[in-house]
UniProtKB/TrEMBL annotation:
This is Monovalent cation/H+ antiporter complex subunit F. The keyword Membrane applies. The chain crosses the membrane at residues 6-24, 62-84. It is a multi-pass membrane protein. It is found in: Cell membrane. Belongs to the CPA3 antiporters (TC 2.A.63) subunit F family. It comes from Leucobacter albus. Keywords: Cell membrane, Membrane, Transmembrane, Transmembrane helix, Transport.
Length: 102
């Protein structure tokens, strides 16, 4: 087994472990922010796997796919952050309104 083959096996094992751990966190949660961070980790793992494939096969065909995945992950993170912010603001305003009526 050459050094390159050993490195690709180690990279594959590491990326597989990372993807499985992210999937577990996506399923178990407990909050939407935990799930969002885990989905970012999973998408980053996919990007790293595509990068490792490009190194192994010596091509650059996957770069547009990697950019699209990164842009999608960034946009999704912003959307979820705004959703959580609005939800928290509504909860705070509801709790303030309830204390005023008491």
């Amino acid at each position: 087994m050459t050094f390159a083959v050993l490195m690709f096996v180690l990279v594959g094992v590491g990326l597989t472990f990372t993807a499985l751990a992210a999937l577990v966190r996506i399923v178990r949660g407990p909050t939407i922010l935990d799930r969002m961070v885990a989905s970012d980790v999973l998408l980053t793992t996919v990007i790293l796997a595509l990068g490792a494939d490009m190194v192994a096969r010596q091509h650059t065909d996957s770069i547009p796919i990697m950019v699209a995945i990164a842009a999608t992950a960034t946009f999704a993170t912003i959307v979820v952050a705004r959703y959580v912010k609005r939800r928290n603001e509504l909860e705070v305003s509801d709790s303030v309104g309830e204390t005023e009526h008491v």
